[in-house]
Design brief:
Number of domains: 1
Number of helices: 1
Largest sheet: 8 strands, antiparallel
Structural class: mainly beta
Strand content: over 45%
Helix content: 10-25%
Shape: elongated
Number of strands: 8
Oligomer: single chain
Length: 118
């Protein structure tokens, strides 16, 4: 009986703090034309939903986080930054280029923390 109450308590606790995530079909694209001297930025989002403690699928919180490949471009269309986001934090190899396409710098991230820069 005691184990049943503990199990029920844990289950209730997990339902209260449950999250649902999925990568949306949306990709953020910011295009800037030459007349306005704008740039281009492309990345995807992951949607994080927080549900109510009742478990009735009522969303009580919703955030959009960058997740997946990230690209940022110069005015001339050349790639400026290439990297990857994991739940809104830089993750993996990030490459930085000059406006002619030459590699300037390489950085390695793990869950948002810079671990190596060359």
């Amino acid at each position: 009986m005691k184990k049943s109450f503990i199990l029920l308590g844990l289950l209730s606790f997990m339902c209260y703090f449950s999250y649902a995530q999925h990568i949306t079909d949306e990709t953020s694209k910011s295009y800037y034309d030459e007349a306005k001297t704008k740039l281009k930025e492309v990345y995807s989002f992951i949607e994080v939903n927080t549900f109510s403690e009742k478990g009735d699928n009522q969303i009580v919180g919703k955030t959009m986080k960058k997740h997946g490949p990230y690209f940022y471009y110069y005015e001339n269309g050349k790639l400026k930054i290439q990297g990857n986001y994991k739940y809104d934090k830089k993750h993996g190899t990030w490459l930085y280029y000059d406006d002619k396409g030459n590699l300037l710098k390489t950085e390695e991230y793990k869950d948002g923390e810079l671990i190596l820069s060359k």
